[in-house]
Amino acid sequence: MIDWLRLAESLISSPWLYAVLIAVSFLDSFLPLIPSEPVVIVAGVHAATGQTDIVLVIAATTLGAFLGDMVPYSAGRLFGARLLQRLPPGTKRRAAHDWFARELDARGGFVLVTTRFIPVGRYLATLSTGLVGFPLRKYVLFVAFATASWSAYTALTGYLGGVLFQENTLLAIAVGVGLAFVVTGFIEAVRRLRHKGDAAAPDAVTD
């Protein structure tokens, strides 16, 4: 398996670093075990010392994440019709499917933006939008905003750590990763509270 963090650190002063950022953020969009956040944070930390360009770090990460988010969505659209055939009208599974489709139609932007900050959540959300036939135009718009926000936040978190602790790179990286975990946890808490406040979904049963 590729050690993405070590690879990024070995290329920190090379233009190839941006290709690594594109690749790791692309793969992390549908392979949750790929650690994109630490890699982006490291690139952000080194931007504080001028070894990387923070604008290019954000741009490369956004591009990779955006293209990556198209993969589960496309897979969902591909298999969505087959799934629908297995959910006859009138069943509770079909009711759950239709409820989720309505929820995405009403709050798709909120779902896609918040789950982008949650490693497994981002994959489940993008796949689900494809499965329920979420409109491509709206999906592209929301995902473009979500990936740009996530990329800027992740890279600038590292950059802030690098500015505060320029003499201690390891501490800067640790602070950046810590901030990322705190904000991710906060976003997940807000998402769960909002979900509890929404109308209850149809009960999941086995037909």
Keywords:
about 210 residues; 2 domains; elongated; membrane; transmembrane helix
What is shown here, in short?
The chain is mostly helical and 207 residues long. The chain is built from eight helices and no strands.
Give a description of the structure.
- The protein has two domains: 163 residues, no CATH class; 32 residues.
- The chain is 77% helix and 0% strand.
- Helix 4 crosses helix 6.
- With 207 residues, it is an all-alpha fold.
- The rough form would be described as elongated
Total strand segments: 0
Mean pLDDT: 79
Order of helices and strands: HHHHHHHH
Helix/strand class: mainly alpha
Helix content: over 70%
Terminal CA distance reads: 41 Å
Give start-end ranges of low-pLDDT stretches.
199-207
SSE blueprint and pairings:
Blueprint: H1 4-10, H2 16-28, H3 36-47, H4 54-85, H5 92-115, H6 119-131, H7 136-164, H8 169-197
Helix pairs in contact: 1-2, 1-3, 2-3, 2-4, 3-4, 3-7, 3-8, 4-6, 4-7, 5-6, 5-7, 7-8
Membrane topology: Multi-pass membrane protein
Transmembrane segments: 16-34, 54-76, 139-164, 170-190
Main location: membrane
